[in-house]
Design a protein that fits this description.
Blueprint (H helix, E strand, L loop, with lengths): L3 H6 L6 H8 L6 E3 L5 E3 L2 H5 L6 E7 L9 H14 L4 E5 L4 H5 L7 E2 L2 E4 L1 H5 L5 H21 L6 E6 L3 E3 L9 E3 L10 E3 L1 E3 L4 H8 L3 H9 L2 E5 L4 E3 L6 H8 L6 E5 L4 E4 L14 H10 L2 E5 L4 H16 L5 E6 L1 H7 L12 H21 L4 E6 L6 H12 L4 E5 L1 H4 L5 H11 L15 H13 L3 E4 L1 H12 L7 E4 L19 E10 L4 E6 L18 E2 L5 E2 L3
Parallel strand pairs: 3-16, 3-17, 4-15, 4-16, 8-11, 17-18, 18-19, 20-22, 21-23
Antiparallel strand pairs: 1-2, 2-14, 5-6, 6-14, 7-12, 9-10, 12-13, 14-15, 22-23, 24-25
Helix pairs in contact: 4-17, 7-8, 7-10, 9-10, 13-14, 14-15
């Protein structure tokens, strides 16, 4: 059986100019990055007179080690739509080097439903992440430089909230002390690093609507507080102009292709467990302008990625999805039902029935909380039995939701045709899209509504330090912003060991911080961290380059 990278490398790619022609992108709107990658000029958004296409969100059940295949399904659905004669464009996030070299792998799909060139996309791509890291660290350097040269803004070094970043899992950098070595080398202080995808710069890039909006958002970043307790911004440091210059090219969406030559926009990549987990607003809008159907995804399970896509991204950008696809596997549902990974290949209806409530809760949330039409896409494995599939179909039917079998990993777009037809049907249905909370709700009430309405927990517990932070944010006028929950991806709760569909739990809010440029309040729960670590056996150990220059071991 071929690996993902072997499948990708054995496929003959079409020149990106041909993909642009398929998408209706004129040559003058393309900036080529070699033969198979390009950036699209933002002016195309204003020049296009085509009505916006239907927006389709692909999300999933709570992830397990068995895998769900959300990105694979997203790509296969777009290919399937084109196979049934629909003009579809796919919009995805860019992968972070953290999971690429860690444990999760890349984010280019898999099998015969991939975006390519997958090695480029999973590694440096067009340099967007490097630009984001550079802009982040420029601001960090300007903060400490300002303090070193007299600190006229009165920045309190103990209250600097801005961290440096690097796009790698590196637990050693979570907490550092820097500025050592005497007065000529800066001011000693406690500091730390986030992974680049957790940087507010990433969130800003993904929510910005234009270059001017990008600059204004960068200016609003709060880097810390002065000795009077007042916020200090990037604008106070005169940093937003240079940061915008670093990010100018990164703001433009990247054009690549699927294995079946479907146009694909891959742009931006915040994690969904520590950030808002969606590709850029600009890439989504571009996909809707270019296609009659724009297929996009949000990270991890629907309680994280979909919640943030709907409550943050759609609220901020004024987007209304037409349909939602919820991806599941029999294997993952059996893990939610209590089986170990080595027990998943044998039929077990009892374990499956215990795990199905996880899927049904996500389905119910999309239907009852957000009031959107949805379909369940089951990625079928060879070990799945007809009885197991039938059980899922029956349980979903009770909620009025159809199930489509997906074989896109093995068959590409052909394996997504059934799903594509159901999605087209759903897109024609009326929906009364609504949010999980209102703009005018207090921050505490927004958090509580997410926990009780989406996670289905009993409520929240706010630690004393977080209560102080909430009071400060309210005094500063940030209490009307949406909230971005930083929570484990492995459970509806803040305890990753609570699988399935737990009830009666309380979510502990231990830290609250403002992302004023991004325009949301970040709520940290449980033991979630903004700088992951590598596993005991990282994927990096298997990656190498052959004598002919081919990368090997990359999934």
């Amino acid at each position: 059986m071929k690996t993902d990278i072997e499948i990708a490398q054995s496929t003959k790619l079409r020149p990106i100019t041909e993909i642009a022609e398929i998408a209706g992108i004129p040559d003058e709107s393309l900036e080529l990055y070699g033969k198979y990658k390009a950036k699209i000029n933002l002016s195309l958004l204003n020049e296009s007179v085509k009505p916006d296409g239907k927006l389709i969100l692909v999300t999933a059940i709570t992830p397990t080690a068995a895998g769900e295949g959300k990105t694979t399904t997203t790509v296969g659905l777009a290919d399937g739509l084109r196979r049934i004669g629909k003009n579809a464009v796919v919009a995805l996030r860019e992968p972070s080097l953290g999971p690429v070299f860690g444990i999760k792998g890349g984010a280019a799909g898999g099998g015969y439903a991939q975006v390519v060139p997958m090695e480029d996309i999973n590694l440096h791509f067009t340099g967007d992440f490097h630009a984001i890291g550079a802009a982040n660290n420029l601001l960090a350097a300007m903060i400490d430089n300002h303090i070193h040269h007299g600190n006229s803004l009165g920045i309190d070094p103990r209250k600097i909230t801005w961290k440096r970043c690097v796009d790698m899992n590196d637990r050693q950098l979570r907490f550092v002390v820097d500025g050592l070595g005497g007065a000529a080398n800066g001011t000693p202080r406690e500091d730390g690093y986030d992974i680049t995808v957790a940087s507010e710069i990433m969130a800003i890039l993904c929510l910005a609507s234009s270059i001017s909006d990008l600059r204004e958002r960068l200016a609003r970043i709060i880097i810390g507080y002065n000795y009077k307790g007042e916020p200090v911004t990037a604008h106070d440091l005169k940093a937003e102009g240079a940061m915008t210059a670093l990010l100018r090219d990164a703001l433009s969406p990247n054009l690549v292709q699927t294995l079946e030559a479907t146009p694909a926009l891959v742009h931006g990549g915040p994690f969904a467990n520590i950030a808002h987990g969606c590709n850029s607003v600009l890439a989504t809008r571009m996909a809707m302008k270019l296609g009659d159907y724009a297929v996009t995804e949000a990270g991890f399970g629907a309680d994280l990625g979909a919640e943030k896509f709907l409550d943050i991204k759609c609220r901020t950008a004024g987007l209304t999805p037409s349909a939602v696809v919820i991806v599941a596997t029999v294997r993952a549902l059996k893990m939610h039902g209590g089986l170990e990974k080595n027990e998943l290949a044998t039929e077990n209806l009892e374990a499956l029935e215990k795990g199905i409530p996880n899927l049904l809760r996500h389905v119910s949330n999309i239907r009852d909380v957000y009031q959107l039409p949805s379909v369940v896409a089951v990625n079928r494995f060879p070990t799945d039995t007809d009885a197991e599939i039938q059980l899922i179909i029956e349980k979903c039917r009770e909620l009025g939701v159809n199930v489509s079998l997906s074989t896109v990993w093995a068959e590409g777009g052909k394996g997504g045709e059934e799903l594509a037809k159901e999605v087209v049907r759903l897109c024609e249905l009326p929906n009364n899209f609504s949010f999980a909370y209102d703009d005018d709700d207090a921050i505490e009430e927004k958090i509580n509504k997410i926990v009780t309405r989406v996670y289905r927990g009993a409520g929240i517990s706010i630690e004393p330090a977080a209560k102080k932070q909430l009071a400060t944010l309210k005094a500063l006028g940030f209490d009307k912003l949406p909230v971005c929950m930083a929570k484990t991806q492995y459970s509806f709760s803040d305890d990753q060991k609570l699988l399935g569909a737990p009830e009666g739990f309380t979510v502990t809010v231990r830290n609250v911080k403002i992302a004023a440029g991004a325009g949301f309040v970040v709520v940290l729960t449980g033991n979630i961290m903004t700088m992951p670590g590598l596993p005991k056996v990282p994927a990096a150990e298997r990656i190498d380059v052959a004598e002919d220059g081919r990368i090997v071991g990359l999934f």
